[in-house]
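Technical note accompanying the year-one report. For the benefit of new consortium partners, we illustrate the data format agreed upon in the data management plan: each record pairs a sequence with a structure-token string. No post-processing was applied to the example shown here.
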Amino acid sequence: MRRVTYEVSKMLRSFGVVFDTSKNEQIAELKKALRLLKNSRIEFYIEQYPDGTWSAESTNVDGIATGGDDPRLISDSLKDAVMTYYEIPALYYDSVNLRSDNEPVTVQQKVHVGA
């Protein structure tokens, strides 16, 4: 349902509809929480597995975690996890300025070779 709401709100924005986020308590709470964090950002530890699946857990906000099977969707999944954690309605997703810092993701893989 969140995905449908997001897509509908995105379409409405393309027609010029503006959603007022100034009175949304959840967005105010997210902004307040970000101001309290070091560097005003939520950080994640991302682990990718040999089968292509991945998982991510916030290292500085307890309780934010996500995962998936398509590494191309990591950024979107992280944003959705943050929005879900702070209970921000999908209607406002594009109005909240969450972005990754475009740093490459470092993936550690261990290869075991049998004799």
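Partners are asked to follow this layout when depositing records. The mean pLDDT is 79.
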